[in-house]
Design brief:
There is one protein chain. The longest helix is centred in the N-terminal third of the chain and has 25 residues. The relative contact order is 0.19. Helix content is 41%, strand content 23%. It is elongated. The strands form two sheets. A six-stranded mixed sheet has the order 2-1-3-10-4-11. The protein has a five-stranded mixed sheet with strand order 7-6-8-5-9. It has two domains: 122 residues, Periplasmic binding protein-like II (D-Maltodextrin-Binding Protein, domain 2), CATH 3.40.190; 99 residues, D-Maltodextrin-Binding Protein, domain 2, CATH 3.40.190. By secondary structure, the protein is α/β, with parallel strands linked by helices.
């Protein structure tokens, strides 16, 4: 059956009236321009980022995909050519990454810092860690110690701490080199290690363990995380919006709850 031209025109006009406002609404809400944002991050900020991402997604319509791994593994992925829209790593490692992966000036900020903490098996008496001497005694008395990988900023800081205390030779044979993201806290929970020393954010809620606290200031070395956006992302607006969202001062309490102090500065 042939449709009269006048009727066809009326149908087209009606469709335009219906579809036009829907397209406008999609543009206003960001649905028409939503993006998938690939975030490569060390394990430290995992808790904070996983809690903030849904809020960002609801506010923007974008979708965030995370890859959380040991910081040195993230570096290797990037060096091997894997693509990320946002990189979240300790600041010195971002500087090292910039030598092989060109990074934008915008989006490169100092995000947050976290301290190194001590955990013990749940139910055991927490040791005194109030002074450097107390920590020295704790390490010498321990049978086995779960210890952050020396290739990471936390592990490197801990190695310097035992050298500073003059007990490196005595302590090294007791060390079980691992990482929190690969089950380091589980060694303490099972009793395979008497102590665990990791970034606070990675062990503050570890099952079967008790958080003793942060190392005292003479031995403490804060790990400062930053963000960066690679230049190969031709449409970086969504990635930059995510960086701005997670670093906003209004989110400082969320970072504090996850074991970090928000810094959020260029």
């Amino acid at each position: 059956m042939k449709v009269p031209n006048a009727m066809l025109r009326r149908v087209l006009v009606t469709l335009q009236m219906i579809i036009g406002p829907l397209v406008a609404l999609m543009l206003l809400t960001g649905e028409a321009t939503s993006a998938d944002i690939r975030v490569f991050s060390g394990g430290g900020p995992q808790d904070a980022l996983r809690h903030l991402a849904p809020e960002f997604e609801r506010a923007t319509g974008h979708h965030v995909e995370f890859t959380f791994q040991l910081v040195t593994e993230i570096q290797r992925k990037l060096a091997a050519g894997e693509k990320a829209d946002v990189i979240v790593l300790p600041v010195p490692l971002i500087a090292a990454t910039a030598k092989t992966v060109p990074l934008r000036t915008e989006g490169r900020i100092v995000l947050a810092r976290g301290g190194i903490a001590v955990i013990v098996r749940q139910g055991t008496t927490p040791p005194d860690i109030s002074t450097a001497e107390a920590v020295r005694k704790m390490l010498l008395n321990a049978r086995a110690i779960a210890w952050s990988d020396p290739s990471t900023p936390v592990g490197g800081s801990l190695n310097r701490a035992i050298a500073q205390l003059g007990i490196a030779d005595e302590v090294r044979p007791k060390l079980i080199i691992t990482s929190a993201i690969h089950g380091g806290a589980d060694l303490v929970a099972r009793g395979d290690a008497d102590l665990g020393l990791f970034l606070l954010s990675e062990v503050r809620t570890a099952r079967g363990t008790t958080l003793v606290g942060l190392l005292p200031s003479p031995l403490q070395s804060f790990v400062v995380y930053g963000t960066a956006v690679p230049t190969y992302n031709a449409t970086p607006e969504a990635a930059l919006a995510f960086v701005k969202f997670i670093s906003d001062p209004s989110r400082s309490e969320r970072w504090k709850a996850a074991g970090f102090e928000l810094m959020g500065s260029p």
